Amino acid sequence: MWKAVVMSEEVGKALQSVVERVNQAAARRPKTLPALPPRLVAVSKTKPTELVIEAYRQGQRDFGENYVSSYQHWSESPQILESCPEIQWHFIGHLQKNNVNKLLGVPNLFMVETVDSVKLADKVNSSWQRVRAASTQRLKIMVQINTSGEQSKHGLPPEETVTTVKHILSQCNALHFTGLMTIGRYGYDLSKGPNPDFQMLLSRRQEVCDGLKLPLEEVELSMGMSSDFEHAIEVGATNVRVGSIIFGNREYPNSAPNTPIPSPEKRSKVVSEEAAKKMAHLTVSEH
User: Which residues form the signal peptide (predicted)?
Assistant: First the structure.
């Protein structure tokens, strides 16, 4: 019990630190970018229920998970259902078509950020109509783009972005196209300049808006994680996915039980210092 209380306190402090950094990064954005307040998605992978509840108690409402099985775990948790009635779940992992029905049955599903094909969009659309037949509310989705071109990454080839979004807008009446999402290449050195994956997503948004006559401020960008979310916000992200510096690293079943884990507050400081060093020579472009 004592350990759980200490961990909850650490999560609360770490979350407050991240929220402050999100707001500071938003204040540094060029005025030419759409003035959309960034949404923080707290990624709660494999963490104890108490930590999710503590983050919720601190005011966090948007949470993300990578696996459908994790959503089913949370949806069946009496503690989460009772303590977090306004929680909003974002699915941020690769979604296989055979798991769509399971995912869409989860209570408080707010957004699917990883639609990466026309076929998947059609499946999610038809399943949402069937699963939520009594509701007229459309499901928010983002289209995932493989901006880095890595075979290990999921997502559309960038050149298919406009045609895929056009299909969703015209053929998937149960879905609300919200924006574009990328994971991008890990470990990019910001001292070399703006992250090219983020720049790619920005350019694809511009193409979508120009080609389909959509207002720029109505197409969100989900990009940036624990190591680079501040830079992502500075160049235009409206949705950032942050996990390890709030909750700590993901815990695996075979990990050593007695391995000491640095507090989220300490991890936040370390990541912040590393990012600051990389961004010392970085100038954010306003175009």
Answer: none
